[in-house]
Design a protein that fits this description.
This protein has about 290 residues and is α/β, with parallel strands linked by helices. It has 9 helices and 10 strands. Helix content is about 30%, strand content about 10%. The chain has a 6-stranded mixed β-sheet, sandwiched between helices. A two-stranded antiparallel ribbon has the order 1-2. Strands 3-4 form a two-stranded antiparallel sheet. The chain binds iron/sulfur cluster. Iron/sulfur cluster (SF4) binds near residues 99 and 105.
Length: about 290
Amino acid sequence: MPPATPLEMSRTYEASPVGPVASGGAAAREGGAALARPDAFGGVLAGGGLATRPGVERSAAAAPPAVIASDAGVIGQSDQLSVFRADLFGALRTRAEACRRCRLCETRQRVVFGEGSTRPRLMIIGEAPGAAEDATGLPFVGEAGQLLTRMLVAIGLSRADVYIGNVLKCRPPANRPPAPDEVVACRPYLREQIELLRPELILLLGNHATRAVLGTDRGITSIRGRLATSPEGWRTLPTYHPAYLLRTPRAKAEAWLDLKFAASILGLALPPRDVARPAAAEQEPTGP
Ligand code: SF4
């Protein structure tokens, strides 16, 4: 059934996710053949038979791009416009850091505005800060953030190449899910961030980010891996939140498909495996 939301599902994988994908080093299987291989960010994913498309196949000869900042990104073509947008972005951060629009201002330690390139081709949006983020003021620095970093490395990117933010800029107490009125209160900051950064693609991590940006009530399981256009016209790709991947390693196979799809949309060649898999990424992450 087509979605009954403003979503415009314009593209899907040619192949469905692989069959059984066991966690912790067990074999993935497709077409009856054992196809498991270690994934690039610390788990197991399915190998041969995955959807392929130009620019997606990993090539040993292809070096990862150093940066993916766009010449036509947020700064635009003129220095004046560049300065203007940088000033607006700085002013937006200043406003957010003093914000008291919702109850979370009473319990936060730090406002977590976001970090990364201000000329990103890829923006990543999660749900809300956790304890580590609340303490440091930086997004995705806890265990899930470390997995996100490895996921980026797997497609040849560093955190500095992208912009990372959240729907909520302040931590909900005890990491509870965002309340609807908190999302409404905080959403203008996210909207301005996106409009100033102008990413080519937004990776939406998990249910809350997907629902906040796309205005859908569909679950991430049914919507992940498909390009969707927001009501504002932003091009997005929903996928699983790294915290979910830590709890559910078998979902990494689908997340890896989504990452490869994102890389292909941006025309990125995947790095050689030994580059994509630093020693730390070899270890299966444990759940929180
Ligand atoms: S979560 Fe957003 S709206 Fe609420 S106080 Fe923090 S910055 Fe303001």
